[in-house]
Predict the 3D structure of the following.
Amino acid sequence: MTLELSRLAKTYGEFTFGPVDLTVGDEVLAVLGPSGSGKTTLLSLVAGIAEPASGSILLDGRELVGRPLEDRRVGMVFQEGALFPHMTARENVEYAAVSDERVADLAATLELEGVLDRRPPTLSGGERQRVALARTLAADPDVLLLDEPLSSLDAPIRKRLRDELHDLFASLDIPVLYVTHDQRTATALGDRLAIVGDGTLEQVGSPSAVLDRPASRFVARFTGTENLFEGTVAERTGGDILVRVGDVRFQTAGSTVAESAVPGAAVTVCIHPSRVELEPLDASVDGGAEQANAVTGTVARWLNEGNEYRIDVEVSGGLTLVANVRPPTFERLGVDIGSEIRVLAPRESIHLIPDSGESR
Amino acid sequence: MGTEPTGPTESAGPTRSAHTRWFRSVDWLTIALVLGGLLLVYYFTPLVSLFLSASPSDVIGRLADPSVQSAATTSLLSASITTVLATVFGLPLAYWLARAETRWKNAVLAVVVLPLVLPPTVGGVVLLTVFGPNTLLGGTAAAAGLPLTRSLAGVVLAQTFVASPFVVVTAKAAFESVDRTLEHASRSLGKSRWATARNVTLPLAGPGILAGVTLAFARAMGEFGATMMVAYYPRTMPVEIWVSFQSLGLDSAYPVAILLVVISVAALLVLNTVASNPWR
């Protein structure tokens, strides 16, 4: 199955969605964006809950725009499950099931046997979402849409259900659009990510492509790249580029660099905090400081963020680099506020976004 | 704030604080209960008094009267027909009002509510201008052997005008209380609008719809003003009460009134049990 959206657009009062072009094959596309960015609008248009102002939605060449919901064969799992409260879990799943065997199969796969005779209000959040998923899959849809199905669940249940969904999605041979505002869920489940911001598709690509090479400042910021600096291209030798940010110079590896980065061009320098390394000053630098973009700075503050520590290091010229380090590294470094430390930003970790004048 | 009052305010202090103390010592809930209690007594006393005014043998004796039996039959029959008509035509309109997205909705709703706020006698006058014996419609129907005034059909027309808005307004609220996401879910599972309405919307709105139907029945049973104008005959129970009162005095009106109170209480019981009382 292939789902093809072209020039799809919709306006709600002040909010404009699209135009969006997007092709989804038999894969999981995780649609990631802040709330109010248009993620749910995208699903509503595909499901037929809302009609677009313009554009088309083709499913294996069949136009979906203008067709009522019931004729689209597009299954949707809603945020809170949207189970029919007057029916038991079993009746919910059987409601549109293509066969009894399908109901039994899904109940087994999603471990629902124990709850089938209960009514939705008595189910836990996780059970409710499993039933909702079973109900949607029982109708044998050609496309599966999920609207933040895990967002209202507690962290441990969310994690467990996420792992189960990962395995389940792998067994489906249909396009799956999974909407979420949680980056971990998106990267864990998505074969590709689509970043939505303010009604438009900012970037579509593999999780690593989107996270390591954000196409815009919005994507960089939304995916957690806190180190964003205004810089100027100083030199370009072959694929390598030297950028200047204030009086700090960064050497980048060519592969991540945009074509338009010619000397003199304004660029945004992105370095994800997890790629920034810290070393004590007395450690010997192998391979040369140039390779690793080593600079000396002063620890301005640090925060314990649970799985990792976030350390702000002031380098020359008022520039602050943020580094995320794991607890063992943090303990080894013996970080103290005010102490001097060496910051390394490996050449491959530096990504440049050509400055198109956007200031988001 | 922050500093103690001095000078002139200090001299005014004691009286004001005494006043404040009195003011604070008043339990407003008690006052509310007393005021509300008086109103409750006002509702309840006449009802009790009515039951005390007629001896059970009187009531039973009057019930054997053919004119009372005929009135009871007319009322029950016409109110039942009215309830069916109000439901059959009211539910679709209620569903449309609950789900349509058009700016005409408020105008349509105003038309629906109009019979509720219109004085019933005026409702009767309005109906007579359309169904009266000298109108095109009324005349044609009468010539065809189905007179629309002074007939059961006339009673039903008057009752439907006055009572059916209860079905529309109450069922509309019941439909609105059904989460639209559930309907979207049903349809995305391949079920048509009609199948979705039947399997999801109607069952969930059921108690609210039943409340509207019950209210419409109760209103139809009690309809007097419009019925008087359109169909004095055959007499319904409220008309029978009026006639008895006029010709024989208040005493002879009691038994039928008691019968109507009993039917009203039964309707209230339905509202508070199987139906979802919209005013609860």
Observations:
- The first helix of chain A runs from residue 39 to 47.
- The mean pLDDT of chain A is 89.
